[in-house]
Amino acid sequence: MNDTARGPGAGAGPAWRAERGFAVLAAFALAAIVAGLVLHAGDHRHAAQLVWGATVVAVGLPLVVSVAATLAHGRMGVDVIALVAMAGALALGETLAGAVVGLMLAGGNALEAVAGRRARRELSALLARAPAVAHRRTGDRLEEVPVDALQIGDVVVVRTGEIVAVDGILVSHAAVLDESALTGESLPATIAQGGMVRSGTANAGSPFDLRASRPAAASAYAAIVRLVRDAQADRAPFVRLADRYAALLLPVTLLAAGGAWALSGDAHRALAVIVVATPCPLILAAPIALVCGVSRAARGGIIVKGAGVIERLGRIRSVLLDKTGTLTLGTPQIERIEVLDGLPEAEVLRAAASLDQLSTHVLAEALVREAHGRALELAFPEDVHEEPGEGIEGVVGGRRVCVGSPDWVRRRGDGALLAPSAGPDRAGELGLAKIAVGVDGRAAGVIVMADRLRPDAAGLITELRHGGVAHVAMVSGDRAAVAESVGESLGLDRVWSERSPQDKLEVVRAVRAQPGLSPVLMVGDGVNDAPALAIADVGIAMGTLGATASSDAADAVITVPSIAAVAEALRIGRRSLGIATQSVLAGMALSFVAMGCAAAGLIPPVAGALLQEGIDVAVILNALRALRA
């Protein structure tokens, strides 16, 4: 799939031209066959033979080119069998049988192309939505610019009905967004000023302004486009295996045909055997079913890189889960604010959130979001300095503010902070983050934040086990006490805690090496998970389309805010692989039965061609079942 993804108007795409070409060729063959039958009925048998023979040649010439190209790339397709059948039909004077083979071949290829386009429709829709231009505000002037020209800090105006071109922070008071294309959620979402807006969503309300937080190439929707293009180019291992089966099928078919000829002395039986082996359901059914799985996953907010990933998902035996952002929400919330120096709670939060507007720390966005939610007016900080992983300091409204770990704030000269009034971490809090706030050299307060389990995390483990997964474990960089608590509450088979990115690689390798536990699926959300996502048999990134390292390393990205989508991805993989296998086995069995009947003289060449194409149509229609839930 390539240019067909641009939508109905993309008539110039190679795939669309190929589909149209097959349809025209099939129409020509049908017309010629009907004309030949009319001539034959009018006792012009010689003319009928000429018309049918010309049809075989007309359809066969493009086939010769196609087969030559396939062989040049080191692959043996079943089209070789079709070419042998058509050549044999010409040699034996069975021109009608050869014309029917040509008609069914062209018609089958056209049907396969149509089925493939239908299977890819969700992916095509995602690509068709990708905006090419955006409206950038420069002072009082509004200019239309290519999306790729947008830079961090640019103010972009998104008009009603337009697709958001870049990730950014909402400048306007509020925005109403349709996120259905990314998350599957039909109800629009309302974003408040200062909230994050993802590219690929659609403006379902009044025009609004946003300030770009990433270049267009690093945005969430650009990541989707990359994933979809990877999916288009992918050929599943199952399909590549089908090519190898095709190389074996040709000599088997020729041996069966030769045996029928030798035993009966009738060359027409040999031709009938070859005809009923053309083309092979193995090639038609497998790619359609697996590509249907890719499209079905996209409909559920799971962007998969290709049919090969769907096939591997169908075989998964072990699932390794990261904790933060995967089993937990990954968006810490304020549990409480402990005032230490008489400042009001709201003022402590306002000072910290104002400074954190320029911080890159994961907790900073949560503080800013909470302040906006409380309708606090934030000041723009000045003279800001941040030490990554430690804290940030600057001037807010003329006062020097420090925000960071208690030890770091103490070292900046803001006095000995009082111990938090709360006791040990409470059940369900999965560990607390304590952020100290210093104002003008004095300890102002401690903001206590916690990350909680996703509501559907427990259900995921049950669904995975019911789906045939033998081993479900967690691999986390968090401290042992917190990780073990989570693992015990979810009933996981094993917990690996305090693991670095390199350690996670070793865990994936160790699980894969155990009998019965391979292939392995790794699910994570952060940059530190990228190496493990890349080395696992399948890597799934949770909602990290804007995080280049993790989304690019993964085989699939989940865009919906639900960990249950992991189980859905496995269900889609198992169902699609099952349908592909079922279609192939049933189609091949019917083909071999037909070959036996042809060898026994029960099926003449013309009837054999019609019968085989009926089998092909049946397996294609069966493969399309993978589109349904």
UniProtKB/TrEMBL annotation:
Family affiliation: Belongs to the cation transport ATPase (P-type) (TC 3.A.3) family. Type IB subfamily.
Membrane-crossing segments per the record: 20-39, 51-74, 80-111, 245-264, 270-292, 584-603
GO cellular component, one term: plasma membrane
Protein name: Heavy metal translocating P-type ATPase
Lineage: Bacteria, Bacillati, Actinomycetota, Thermoleophilia, Solirubrobacterales
An annotated Gene Ontology molecular function: cadmium ion transmembrane transporter activity
Keyword Transport found: no
P-type ATPase A domain boundaries: 130-228
Keyword annotations: ATP-binding, Cell membrane, Membrane, Metal-binding, Nucleotide-binding, Translocase, Transmembrane, Transmembrane helix
Compartment(s) of residence: Cell membrane
Record keyword Flavoprotein present: no
Protein topology in the membrane: Multi-pass membrane protein
PANTHER family on file: CADMIUM/ZINC-TRANSPORTING ATPASE HMA2-RELATED (PTHR48085), CADMIUM_ZINC-TRANSPORTING ATPASE HMA4-RELATED (PTHR48085:SF5)
